[in-house]
Write a structure and sequence with these properties.
Elements lengths: L25 H11 L5 E4 L4 H13 L4 E5 L6 H13 L4 E5 L5 H8 L3 H4 L1 H17 L4 E3 L16 E4 L4 E4 L7 H10 L49
Parallel strand pairs: 1-2, 1-4, 2-3, 4-6
Antiparallel strand pairs: 5-6
Helix pairs in contact: 1-2, 2-7
Bound molecules: iron/sulfur cluster (SF4).
Iron/sulfur cluster binds next to helix 6.
Protein name: Adenosine 5'-phosphosulfate reductase
Function: Catalyzes the formation of sulfite from adenosine 5'-phosphosulfate (APS) using thioredoxin as an electron donor.
EC number: 1.8.4.10
């Protein structure tokens, strides 16, 4: 077995992966990851957006019983829960875990007031996303994410392997070189289920109070927390 890279023994290793075609390195990265990390030490945290669907299909080819976590904030669109059900039917061997926050929406409202996402979205994301992910990956060595470099300036320097200071972990990003068009070409070519909101000008889909349709789909993150300075939920910021 090849040596696993961990947070503790981290060192950037250039040229570790082949730029396999047509996957732009994604298959090679995933194959390596599921070889070097024991299955209880690696997880894919998916939002079941378009990138997530591609990753799920690739992961399933390599590790049919892979562990996938969905952060179920209880504030997702019905279409998001629909696509998860479709994925569960299409890939029944995958182990899809819906991780809920410690606080229900009612308990959150009692503690912080109603509609926390309007007043303090960072606090809301912390309670409903960051803490649950920390709990979910606390005993893992590595987690997989669907970040792509073209999504935003803050993601432009993402590597296949990243030392994740926030979760003291290795963050694996197989899709960094993929374009939005390539994501969709893959989904269509493999006739994969996808979130129907993508057909209605929602390129990036999160919780319904914080996700709007966009006029220009070239800016894939524009519909998230629109009208505020917030651009990330906090999972990918230090
Ligand atoms: Fe709360 Fe919005 Fe963050 Fe969802 S995306 S956890 S509703 S602030």
């Amino acid at each position: 077995m090849k040596t696993a890279i961990t947070y503790e023994n981290w060192q950037p290793i250039p040229h570790l992966f082949k730029m396999d075609e047509p996957f732009k390195g994604a298959y090679s990265v995933l194959e390596w990851a599921y070889q070097v990390y024991p299955e209880e030490k690696i997880v894919y945290a998916s939002s079941f957006g378009a990138e997530g669907i591609v990753l799920i299909d690739l992961i399933h080819q390599i590790k049919p019983d892979a562990h996938i976590i969905f952060l179920d904030t209880a504030l997702h669109f019905p279409e998001t829960y629909d696509v998860i059900e479709k994925i569960e039917r299409r890939f029944p061997t995958l182990r899809i875990e819906k991780k809920k926050p410690a606080l229900t929406l009612e308990q959150q409202a009692e503690k912080y007031g109603t509609a926390l996402w309007k007043r303090e979205p960072n606090q809301c994301c912390h309670v409903r996303k960051v803490i649950p992910l920390r709990e979910a990956i606390g005993k893992k060595v590595a987690w997989i994410s669907g970040l792509r470099r073209e999504q935003s300036p803050s993601r432009a320097h993402t590597e296949f392997l990243n030392k994740d200071e926030k979760f003291k972990n290795i963050k694996i990003c197989p899709l960094i070189h993929w374009t939005w068009d390539e994501i969709w070409a893959y989904i269509k070519a493999h006739e994969l289920p996808y979130n129907e909101l993508h057909d209605h000008h929602y390129p990036s889909i999160g919780c319904f109070p914080c996700t709007q349709p966009v006029a220009n789909e070239g800016d894939s993150r524009a519909g998230r927390w629109s009208g505020s300075s917030k651009t990330e939920c906090g999972l990918h910021t230090s």
